[in-house]
């Protein structure tokens, strides 16, 4: 499986944008870039995914580098409820492929 | 979005007993479900892939006779921790894929404490 590299932790002030980076230099052409997050004592939840183009949804935006070797999850206006561990995962998008979780980035929101 | 229900949310049991954890997809059918285990301060580790109507596929190092998986219907998979011991204490999480298979929906997790 192609691996991803994320910072162990990040801090951000409440109501400010947050940019969470992910490096995936060995990404293959069929890998989609997925982001999930896990709030304390809960199961993970889906955030966003994309292949080549930038993606937006109600939770976040995903900016994908032109060479696809890195991506950035953008939370436009962080709230205290966004404090979680964020996982960047590469995955073939069909056929119910498993998710392989790395260590993720622990995001702390400062009030 | 799709919802996955996991029950119980917390269980405390004595060493040597068996514990069953249920994972249900509430508004969609799931031919494949996944079971993960998470120790404190660590990431999720995939234990097994549960396939409806067939045997589960276990990850390397996971004892299939200790962690019994049954996926008897398109909406229910169960994980039974047999003869639980304190080292089995962990956070167990299930997930099921959307119809397209592109998004995984996770249960809220089951915290197992074995005394």
Overview of the structural elements:
The complex is a heterodimer of chains A (111) and B (115). Chain A is mainly beta and 111 residues long. Chain A has no helices and nine strands. The relative contact order of chain A is 0.34. Helices cover 0% and strands 52% of the residues of chain B. In chain B, the strands form two sheets. In chain B, strands 2, 4, 5, 6, 9, 10 and 11 form a seven-stranded mixed sheet that branches. A four-stranded antiparallel sheet of chain B has the order 1-3-8-7, with no helix packed on it. Chain B is mostly beta strands and 115 residues long. Chain B is built from no helices and eleven strands. The model of chain B has no long low-confidence stretch (mean pLDDT 93). The chains are: A mainly beta (111), B mainly beta (115). Chain A binds chain B through residues 32, 36, 38, 41-46, 49, 87, 93-104, and chain B through 1, 4, 6, 31-32, 34, 36, 43-46, 49, 91, 93-95, 97, 100-109, 111.
Summarize the structure.
Chain A contains no helices and nine strands. Chain A is mainly beta and 111 residues long.
